[in-house]
Design a protein that fits this description.
With 376 residues, this protein is α+β, with helices and mostly antiparallel strands. Helix content is 26%, strand content 22%. Helix 1 packs antiparallel against helix 3, helix 4 crosses helix 5 and helix 6 runs parallel beside helix 7.
Length: 376
């Protein structure tokens, strides 16, 4: 999401500015739509892990490959919190588990600590109720946070008379810290189970509950995702997770297969979804599909490893320029599981898999509008 318009330095005729798209027109008739990739700044992630008898290898798969998830978060510079509960609503009842129960960027060895936390064992109830467990966890955290929020508000009522109201308000927050379900953070719920959800309520009940978990007016700040049995069927003995998929579809989340022998790619996909990196970019005009060219600009000081998603990389324009100038040109692959495609029905460019532009990447999509004669 673009908060400020990026000035493009070539041709300024036809420039338009809104929250999602910047457009420049290059004669004769060639058009360039430009966008900035940004992420959320604060995210709380709740993992709901199935702890029934068949889950030992799935938990181990998650634990061993979790660094793939953390890589995306760490490169994005996000202020995150990670917590775990189980699908057992008789024993844990939504209580957070692990040591420590809430992990943050300051947690030592955060990936390995999380790996220990997700090894929740296999002695839980065979009546897996992931959606109910998440609802119980969110409700429990809200109740625990309520007195702190009241204390914050009472403290801030006196800040109008302070010499520095902003600092005063910040101190009110620091004096009443909230570890999880922070008011300023997006909430991302991830379900990991090889069985269908058996929660008592309809999927839409949980959807509405999660949508309002951050308070009135903050719907859209909660997303759900799942690593689950494939829908409609799979070959690894897992039960299709139809309810988890239905909820993720409603909230715009991703799903992955519990049958995968390695969760690495799925965890990267979920992390990308979690931090809010956009995959779809709507064009401002209908293009001649054959004319579409996609380029992503990055700072000159970005490492080659961080540009591995590019099909080609051109650093020519970085010569003599500041390290933080956006003069690295990345050409992402086209098509396939890790490339971009044009979706004519929605008139969008869609980035699949590893091709999703990184945080702060500046996407430029050049094309000839349909029906126009464009120069070369």
């Amino acid at each position: 999401m673009i908060r400020n318009c990026l000035l493009l330095a070539l041709v300024l005729s036809g420039l338009s500015c809104d929250r999602t798209r910047l457009t420049k027109v290059l004669p004769p008739n060639v058009r360039v739509d430009a966008y900035s990739q940004e992420s959320a700044s604060n995210i709380d992630v709740l993992w709901v892990i199935d702890n029934s008898g068949s889950m030992a290898p799935r938990q181990e798969n998650l634990a061993k490959n979790f660094q793939s998830f953390m890589d995306v978060f760490q490169k994005s510079g996000i202020n995150y919190r990670l917590a775990v509960t189980t699908t057992d609503t008789f024993k844990e009842k939504g209580e957070l588990v692990g040591n420590p129960k809430v992990l943050s960027p300051t947690t030592p060895n955060v990936a390995s600590t999380f790996a220990n936390n997700v090894r929740v064992g296999i002695n839980g109830s065979p009546y897996e109720a992931g959606l109910e467990a998440a609802w119980l966890a969110v409700d429990d955290q809200a109740k625990k946070n309520a007195p702190k929020l009241v204390a914050r508000d009472m403290c801030k009522t006196n800040c109008n008379r302070a010499m520095d109201p902003a600092t005063c308000a910040a101190n009110c927050d620091k004096a009443n810290p909230i570890d999880f379900l922070r008011p300023e953070a997006y909430l991302y719920l991830v379900f990991v189970s090889d069985e269908e959800d058996r929660s008592p309520q309809d999927v839409r009940f949980y959807w509405r509950s999660f949508e309002t978990a951050k308070g009135i007016g903050n719907d859209g700040t909660v997303t759900t995702a799942a690593i689950m049995g494939d829908v409609p069927s799979n070959g690894c003995g897992a039960t299709p997770g139809s309810r988890y998929k239905a909820l993720s579809d409603l909230t715009g989340g991703e799903v992955g297969s519990i049958c995968d022998t390695n969760f690495s790619a799925t965890l990267r996909k979920l992390a990308t979804n979690a931090v809010g990196l956009k995959r779809k970019f709507a064009l401002g005009d209908m293009p001649d599909p054959a004319s579409i060219q996609v380029t992503v600009k990055y700072p000159c000081n970005l490492s080659d490893a961080d540009l591995s998603r590019c099909q080609t990389v051109d650093r020519t324009e970085c010569m003599g320029m500041p390290d933080d100038s956006y003069n690295v040109s990345c050409t992402p692959p086209q098509g396939g599981p890790d490339g971009w495609t044009y979706e004519a029905g929605n008139n969008v460019i869609f980035f699949a898999g590893e091709s999703v532009p990184g945080v702060k990447g500046q996407i430029e999509i050049q094309f000839c509008p349909e029906g126009l004669q464009c120069g070369t």
